Every structure is written in C-alpha cells, then in structure tokens.
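Re: that chain you flagged

S.,

Sorry for the slow reply, it's been a week of failed gels. I finally had a moment to sit down with the sequence you sent. For the record, here it is as I used it:
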Amino acid sequence: MTRKELELRTIVWDHLRPSLALLFVLFVLLAAAYPAVLTGLDDALNPNGAAGDELVCDGQVVGSTLIAQNISSPMFFHPRNASQSDSGVDSDLTPPAAYAQVPGISAATGISNSSLDFLVQQNANQNAADNSFTAPPYVNVNALNVMLVELYPSTYSGYCAS
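Prediction finished late last night. Pasting the structure tokens below so you have them in one place:
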C-alpha cells in the first residue's frame, strides 16, 4: 500500500468513524429509548390500556371491555353490528341504542324494564365518570352483560360459573 493510499484510507476512516458512532447513538435512542419512554408514559397515564381492560366475572377473566363479543342470546345486550362500527369490534353503544334493547331482554328474562333501565344508566354514568369529558356518552355492552349475570344469577345460571 502506498503512502497516498494509506493517507486516503486514514482520511476516510477519520470521517466515517464519527458518522458510524452517531448512527449507533441515534439507533439506540430512536429504536430503544424513545419507545421505552413512550410505553412507560402510556402505562402510567392509562394503566389498563395495554392490559386490554380485562372483563372479570365471578373472579375469572372472561374477555375484554374493549372488544365486542359475538352474542346471539336474546337475554343479553348486543353490540353494534359490524357495519355500524368503524372497527367491527366496538363493544360500546349509545345509551338510546341500549335502552331500545331493554324490552326484548325484559321479555326474555323476566327482569323488569325499570331494573334494566337502571343498569344501563348506571353503566353510562360510570363510563362518563371514568372518561370525564373525553368521550361522548356510551354504554359498554360487555360490562353491562357481566352485571346482568352477577346481579341475576338464577336467571343467568351457568353463564359465568366460578
């Protein structure tokens, strides 16, 4: 190797070394540290978000409050149809849509309309308290159905056995 080639190699390496070091530092910051910080902030600000908001019935996890369940029984509240939901898995209804289902559930279960209306209102109030002003009024169908099973065990025997 000639002296000129050696000098050229040294010059290239002197310029390349800081670029590679910067590339490594930026990779560590942007690919590891930044996502870790954002994940930590999300966990602190929204502790149930990453866990999927587990839905518990009689002490056992039976689903998530975030994902609609496929329900065919007339004894339960039904989520929106997939064509009415942006995601197709939305477990929330407007309060009027939930109230519209009350007479059918009452006929199928024998639970009074007023009791079912009260549960819908209670669920909507809890959701409003949990979300303050960040969300429009809604009823979580999954949580409402678990309330039915837990409050009326004779009517819903076997649906949530512990």
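What I noticed first: The chain has four helices and four strands.

Talk soon,
D.
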